[in-house]
Amino acid sequence: MELLQGLFIPNISxxxxxxxxFMIKVENLKKSYGDVPALNGVSFEIKEGEFFGLLGPNGxxxxxxxxxxxxILEPNEGKVTIGTYDLKKDPGQCKRTIGVVTQEIALYxxxxxxxxxxxxxxxxxxxxxxxxxxxxETLQLFGLADRQHDKIETYSGGMKRRINIASALxxxxxxxxxxxxxxxxxxxxxxxxxxxxxxxxxEGMTIVYTTHYMEEAERFxxxxxxxxKGTIIAQGTLNELKNTGGLxxxxxxxxxxLTDLVKTKIGTFLGGEFKFEENVLHSYTSNVKTxxxxxxxxxxxxxxDIVNIEIQKVNLETVFLSLTGKQLRD
Length: 330
Ligand SMILES: Nc1ncnc2c1ncn2[C@@H]1O[C@H](COP(=O)(O)OP(=O)(O)OP(=O)(O)O)[C@@H](O)[C@H]1O
Ligand SMILES: [Mg+2]
What we know:
The protein is an alpha/beta fold and 330 residues long. The chain has eleven helices and 14 strands.
């Protein structure tokens, strides 16, 4: 990995003016497929070097958004700016600035990984000698140098995905779009992809990543937009999203049994928001650490026998649930 330091520092992308501090600006995108509305006025901005997550359930509009941003699809309305370029007026410059990893893997099965990379690299006018060096480095990075001359049809799903991502990086894009790149692949490939993404992010690449896995969004993204039914319903840093609507962590305490007297005693020392459901007390707090010990001591003093305690932290799933009334995952 040491040798590869700086591998992806872009050299053909636009220099941004001092007064432009976004890399991507999306304004009021609308798109329908016939009568099926897919995007209802999507807007967001992504800063240079940001790892931006587009999180949403199946059919939310993630692929439609990414496809428009990567010039694969035209919107019905709206404007996209990438770097200093207007996507509609200057699609060629935009294409040179971006690398795209589509949801469906696009590779030639009858060709080897090396031949696939030569093909995809040559589409971007990378000079032949440079291309060979970049392919060698990229194959190392993705741990597939020893399999480079095997046909893609002999590869596992995870290996295909690694080559697919490698092919999007050969022209050293300043921005990388990735549409659910870890769905259905083995843990080893997934971890390797995560390592590469972390490295690219550290080197300053702007990454736009769609997923319906909240764990991935929580782990990697500087900022996240939550999309549902073609509408961005919330966006911000993880902490900003967690504070949406004053959401609180919950502590669920199950008791052996509860009398009304004990419930009253517990109620008097709890103070904050809480409710009883049969033998379970749900207490809502913005500070689990201090409230948990207070709660255990108080319950014991009230003479209640605790049999179980569960802490539900606020996460993106909770945020999504509170905004839409449904689960992020089907
Ligand atoms: N080619 C198409 N023709 C008709 N409707 C489409 C087409 N592509 C997408 N849609 C519809 O547009 C909406 C958004 O789809 P899109 O593929 O952008 O969602 P997504 O968030 O990428 O979903 P997934 O997580 O399943 O990939 C959905 O209602 C989908 O059924
Ligand atoms: Mg999709």
